[in-house]
Amino acid sequence: MATLTRVASEPRPFTPEPITDEEAAAMFRAALNLFRLWGVNDDQAAAILDVARRTFARWKAGDVGRLGRDGKARLSNLMGIHKALKIVFSEASRGYAWIKAPNAAFGGRSALDVMLGGELTDLMRVRRYLDAERGGW
8, 54, 58, 76: most buried by Cβ count inside 10 Å? Predict the structure, then answer.
């Protein structure tokens, strides 16, 4: 007869910096690849990340430095968007193209148009939509 093993279900204590600077730098490098695959130019990328164009250029050159919570949250949402696109679309190229395609869920605007609003909530809106589409909610 099988026995049940008790699993710890207590929530872990809150940590104010759940994403390390090293993880954020890795996510930034991944985001650069996403921007290239999505056909996003540097001005658009800077708007999505809510940083000055000069700051983005410095980061892109390899001097990422320390990112704040907002920047880390933006990068995390971009990684979530990428993951959801990989699940929803069997062909990567279709997922990359979807970013710029008009979408009725966004009032005929594209996901890129929504993300270019510049607010963290704009990225979250695209991510929530994709998570719902893939059955993650």
Answer: 76
Q: Which domain holds residue 51?
A: 21-133
Give domain status of residue 88, yes or no: yes
- Check residue 9 and give its pLDDT: 79
4-to-1, 93, 127 alpha-carbon distances in Å: 10, 45, 36
Q: Is the pLDDT of residue 67 over 90?
A: no
**pTM confidence score:** 0.84
Average pLDDT in the 62-78 region? Answer: 90
Residue type, 42: D
User: Per the structure, how many domains does the chain have?
Assistant: 1
Helix, strand, or coil (residue 22): helix
Residue 61 falls within a domain, yes or no? yes
